[in-house]
Design brief:
There is one protein chain. By secondary structure, the chain is mostly helical. It is about 85% helix and about 0% strand. It is built from 3 helices and no strands. The longest helix has about 40 residues, at about 1-40. The mean pLDDT is about 75. It comes from Ancylostoma ceylanicum. GO terms for molecular function: monoatomic cation channel activity. This is Protein UNC80 central region domain-containing protein. InterPro entries: UNC80_central.
């Protein structure tokens, strides 16, 4: 029981030390995924039908990519 408690305490300590770094990485990843979508949504009122068509074509190519991270960005 005592060993298990010391393991829990050690894990909590590591999490506290890495909390700032983990928050930074989560924010960075969120911004990486969120920014292109946000830009596209904000520009919807200004896009021409031809630009919508181009955006759909690019998104489709991203969906067909082999890299799962690229697919998630589509």
């Amino acid at each position: 029981e005592q060993d298990r408690q010391s393991e829990l305490t050690q894990d909590e300590g590591e999490e506290d030390v890495n909390k700032e770094m983990l928050d930074y990485i989560r924010t960075l990843v969120l911004n990486l995924v969120h920014t292109p979508l946000s830009t596209a949504l904000k520009s919807c009122l200004l896009l021409t039908p031809e630009q919508y068509k181009q955006m759909v074509e690019v998104s489709w190519q991203l969906l067909l990519n082999e890299d799962p991270h690229v697919v998630l960005s589509a």
